[in-house]
C-alpha cells in the first residue's frame, strides 16, 4: 500500500531538521528546505537545486507540497483583481488585490465558507466547509504580491484578513500564517501592515491579546445598539456589547494598539441620530477609530445603502468628539470583489476542469 505522504509545510524548522537527522543526514539540510518552502515559495522538490537528487527523492517519498492555484482571475475597471483560489482538495476561496495610488492591499480568506450568520454578507450564506491551513493563507499573500509586482510594478504593502471566513474562528492557523508572513525567513512583512478583522469573538480576542501581537485589530461592529446589532448578526447574542468592550479594553491594555470599528450604514436600519450617538458613546470607552464602509448589494432588498446625509452626520459627530473616522469607498464592485460580496458566485466549491 502506498505510503500516505504528509504536507511538508505542516512541519516546523526543528521537525525538518530532525527528519534529516533521522536519515543520517546533516541537520542543515532542513534549513535549506525550509528556505525553499517559505522564503522562495517553492511548490516543487525538483526546484531545490542545492539538494542532491537523492535528497530530493527522499523528500518526494515522504512528503507532498500542497499549494493553491489561481482558478480564475477577474480585473475590475478600477484595477482591483479578484482571484478564485483552488485549494489542493478542490475547494474554492476568494482573495483580492486592492490597489491605490500609494499602496497594494491583499484581502485574504481564512475559511472555506463561513460559520457565522451576518445577514448582510454574501459569504455568510455559504456553509463553512473547513478552516484554511497556514500555508494556504500564506500562499494567497504570495500570489497577490506577485500580481501587484506584475500589474503595478510594486510589492504588496498591506494585508487585511477580511476575505471569506471569520479569522478568529481559525485563529491558531491565522496566527501561524501571520508569523510566517512577518518572519525574516518568510516574507518579512511588518506586522503593523496587517489587520485582522473579526465580528467580535470576545474569548479569542482576550486569548490573542495575551500573546502581545503586533498586527492591528478591526471589529465589524455595525451598531452600538444591542438589539440592532443582534438583528444584523444574530450570533452576536453570544458576544454582547459589554463583553466585547471589556475584551477590547483588555486588547488595548496588552498591546497599546487602538481598535478599528467597521460600520456599514444602511437606510432605515442604523442611520438615525440614536445610532450615531450610541457609536460615539461606545468609541469613547476604548481607544478606537472608525471606518464607515459603503454597502455593497448582495441581492437582499432589506439592505439599502444609506443616504450621503447619514454618512455625513456620522462623520461630523465622530470628528466633533475627536474620534478618527474614515469613509471607505468600495473597490471592485463590478466583479463582486467588494466588502461583503465574496461568495463564489458560481455556487460551487469543487469542479473538475483544469486550471
Description:
The chain folds into 2 domains: 6-64, Orthogonal Bundle (DNA polymerase, domain 1); 96-335, TIM Barrel, CATH 3.20.20.70. The model is unreliable at 340-355 (pLDDT under 50). It is α/β, with parallel strands linked by helices. The radius of gyration is 22 Å and the shape is elongated. The chain has 10 helices and 14 strands. The protein has helices at 13-22, 28-38, 53-62, 134-152, 171-182, 202-209, 226-232, 241-255, 273-283, 308-320; strands at 6-7, 63-64, 69-75, 81-86, 92-99, 104-107, 111-112, 130-131, 158-161, 194-198, 216-220, 259-264, 288-293, 325-328. The two termini are 30 Å apart. Helix 6 runs parallel beside helix 8 and helix 9 packs parallel to helix 10 (308-320). The strands form 3 sheets. It has a 10-stranded mixed sheet with strand order 3-4-5-6-9-10-11-12-13-14. The protein has a two-stranded parallel sheet with strand order 1-2.
Amino acid at each position: 500500500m502506498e505510503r500516505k505522504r504528509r504536507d511538508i509545510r505542516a512541519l516546523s524548522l526543528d521537525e525538518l531538521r530532525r527528519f534529516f537527522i533521522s536519515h543520517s543526514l546533516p541537520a542543515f539540510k532542513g534549513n535549506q528546505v525550509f528556505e525553499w518552502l517559505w522564503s522562495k515559495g517553492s511548490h516543487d522538490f525538483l526546484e531545490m537545486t542545492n539538494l542532491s537528487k537523492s535528497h530530493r527523492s527522499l523528500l518526494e517519498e515522504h512528503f507532498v507540497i500542497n499549494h493553491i492555484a489561481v482558478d480564475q482571475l477577474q480585473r475590475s475597471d478600477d484595477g482591483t483583481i479578484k482571484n478564485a483560489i483552488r485549494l489542493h482538495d478542490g475547494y474554492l476561496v476568494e482573495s483580492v488585490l486592492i490597489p491605490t495610488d500609494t499602496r497594494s492591499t491583499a484581502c485574504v480568506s481564512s475559511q472555506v465558507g463561513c460559520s457565522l450568520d451576518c445577514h448582510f454578507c454574501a459569504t455568510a450564506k455559504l456553509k463553512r466547509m473547513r478552516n484554511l491551513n497556514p500555508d494556504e493563507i500564506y500562499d494567497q499573500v504570495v500570489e497577490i504580491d506577485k500580481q501587484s509586482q506584475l500589474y503595478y510594478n510594486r510589492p504588496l504593502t498591506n494585508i487585511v484578513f477580511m476575505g471569506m471566513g471569520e479569522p478568529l474562528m481559525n485563529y491558531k492557523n491565522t496566527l501561524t500564517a501571520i508569523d510566517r508572513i512577518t518572519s525574516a525567513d518568510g516574507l518579512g512583512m511588518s506586522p503593523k501592515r496587517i489587520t485582522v478583522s473579526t465580528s467580535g469573538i470576545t474569548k479569542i480576542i482576550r486569548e490573542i491579546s495575551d500573546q502581545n501581537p503586533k498586527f492591528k485589530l478591526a471589529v465589524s461592529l455595525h451598531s452600538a445598539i444591542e438589539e440592532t446589532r443582534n438583528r444584523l448578526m444574530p450570533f452576536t447574542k453570544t458576544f454582547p456589547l459589554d463583553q466585547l468592550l471589556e475584551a477590547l479594553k483588555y486588547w488595548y491594555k496588552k498591546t497599546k494598539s487602538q481598535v478599528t470599528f467597521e460600520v456599514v450604514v444602511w437606510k432605515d436600519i442604523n442611520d438615525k441620530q440614536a445610532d450615531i450617538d450610541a457609536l460615539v458613546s461606545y468609541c469613547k470607552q476604548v481607544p478606537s477609530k472608525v471606518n464607515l464602509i459603503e454597502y455593497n448589494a448582495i441581492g437582499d432588498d432589506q439592505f439599502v445603502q444609506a443616504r450621503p446625509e447619514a454618512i455625513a452626520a456620522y462623520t461630523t459627530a465622530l470628528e466633533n468628539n475627536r474620534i478618527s473616522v474614515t469613509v471607505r469607498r468600495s473597490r471592485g464592485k463590478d466583479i463582486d470583489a467588494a466588502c461583503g460580496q465574496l461568495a463564489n458566485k458560481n455556487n460551487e466549491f469543487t469542479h473538475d476542469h483544469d486550471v
